[in-house]
Design goal:
By secondary structure, the chain is of the alpha/beta class. It has 14 helices and 24 strands. Bound molecules: uridine-diphosphate-N-acetylglucosamine.
Length: 429
């Protein structure tokens, strides 16, 4: 098993370039199903989740070729299956993004239900309700969702109960060929959705209003393959901005649109952090103590839930008490209990966390609870006394390309280390 070891207290400064956005690349890969032929995606991050989506597409019959480290060519003319197995969906919930494109192209799809959820319960109920409005019928058998559109898909108005990113994307992709006009009301507005709509429009689709709460899709005939560059990863950028803010020396982050991090950067400024916005880059520095602020996560343009853990790490050592409210996901405070092991003072009450700033953190052995929480623990290690060892780093590999190398290029003392698996034998208990 590999762990990340961080030796705290060393300067971290310099320039880092972010990769293409994970959350965009995964959906763009799924969307290639809609344009039979060879689509080329550039600026694709080389991360574990992209490899899983590659496997999902291969399972469907596509030919996925790695042209170079950040370029994929995907031939979807050979797609001849519409079934996505549980072994892949369970590894990555975003595998369900193929549902919409498969329905649009073949009028049918079989997708394993994401673990631990039923139709109608949380998870993908909004995807299903929306697709039903477009004429899709669902059946569940042996853990798989069977979706068919016996009479083809037709336009409809879908009011989303919550601005779900995944549901908005599946509905956009499902409706590109639907007869008539589809309107998604209360659509998610994340930049990755705009990226998806841009690529689909380049392919010949007619999607209007992406990036606003109302998206209108006019059904068209066949789409054609294109070459498209994935938008820069605002969350990777935000993570390195938080690292610069925590350590204090200037860190410049390149390769993304600062507007995509609008509220995050404004909150950072309220915390006493200096933010200089440039052309597709931002420089973060700090010459005063961090100050407490309250944050609440909300769909874009609100504060992103994917930046909650990294920001909580800053607040953990800020002067004063902050309230962090998580409105998007349940159970997204697991990071806080690991940070407690490093000496933070955080009390969780339902979906609120009361963060009382402490003067310093101390290195400890901690476990990545999830992708962003794992990155935030490495970040905490940079200012903690002594050594921090972060376990379960496969979470970090899902979404950050060469995270350790990039931190080292900024001067951080961080290494990946192979350690023996921890085994507890029954007869030793
Ligand atoms: C996407 C992002 C994830 C980000 C999240 C919110 C990808 C691969 N992942 O996830 O990084 O944190 O947006 O910005 O793009 N929900 C339902 N029913 C549904 C759909 C969602 O109850 O049918 C709930 C979810 O359980 C969650 C909330 O709505 O509590 C938000 O989910 P959603 O916006 O759909 O997030 P994802 O698309 O899964």
């Amino acid at each position: 098993m590999e762990v990340i070891r961080v030796e705290g207290g060393h300067p971290v400064t310099g320039t880092v370039t972010v990769e293409g956005a994970k959350n965009s690349a995964l959906k763009l890969m799924a969307a290639t199903i809609l344009a039979p032929g060879v689509t080329t995606l550039t600026n694709v991050p080389n991360i574990a989740d992209v490899h899983v989506m590659g496997k999902v597409l291969k399972e469907l019959g596509a030919i996925v070729e790695v042209v170079d480290e950040h370029t994929l060519s995907i031939d979807t003319s050979t797609v001849d299956s519409w079934e996505t197995p549980y072994s892949l969906v369970t590894r990555m919930r975003a595998s369900t993004a193929v549902l919409g494109p498969l329905l649009a192209r073949f009028g049918k799809a079989i997708v394993a239900m994401p673990g631990g959820c039923n139709i109608g319960a949380r998870s993908i109920d909004m995807h299903i309700l929306g697709l039903e409005a477009l004429g899709v019928e669902f059946d569940v058998d042996h853990g798989d969702i069977y979706a068919t559109a016996p009479n083809g898909l037709h336009g409809a108005t879908v009011n989303l109960e919550f601005a779900s990113v995944g549901a908005t994307e599946n509905l956009v992709m499902a409706s590109v060929h639907a007869k008539g006009v589809t309107i998604i009301d209360n659509a998610a507005r994340e930049p990755e959705i705009q990226d998806l709509a841009n690529m689909l429009n380049e392919m010949g689709a007619d999607i209007r209003g992406a990036g606003t709460p109302v998206i209108e899709i006019h059904g068209v005939g066949e789409l054609h393959p294109v070459t498209h560059a994935v938008t820069g990863d605002r969350i990777e950028a935000g993570t390195f901005a938080a690292i610069g803010a925590l350590v204090g020396q200037p860190v410049t982050i390149k390769g993304f649109e600062p507007d995509h991090l609008g509220l995050v950067l404004r909150k950072f400024e309220q915390m006493g952090i200096t933010v200089r916005r440039g052309q597709r880059c931002v420089t973060v520095s700090r010459d005063q103590p961090l100050r407490a602020v309250d944050i609440q996560t909300l769909p874009f343009p609100g504060f992103p839930t994917d930046m909650q853990a990294q920001t909580m790490c800053l607040l953990a050592v800020a002067e004063g008490t902050s309230i962090v409210t998580e409105n998007v996901f349940e159970n997204r405070f697991m990071f806080a209990s690991e940070l407690q092991r490093m000496g933070s003072d955080i009390a969780i009450q339902g979906h609120h966390a009361v963060v009382r700033g402490v003067r310093s953190l101390s290195g400890a052995e901690v476990r990545s609870p999830d992708l962003r929480g794992g990155a935030a623990l490495v970040m905490a290690g940079l200012i903690a006394d002594g050594t921090t060892t972060v376990l379960d780093i496969y979470h970090i590999d899902r979404g950050y390309e060469r995270f350790v190398e990039k931190l080292r290029s900024l001067g951080a003392h961080v290494t990946r280390v192979e350690v023996p698996d921890i085994e507890v034998l029954d007869d030793e208990l």
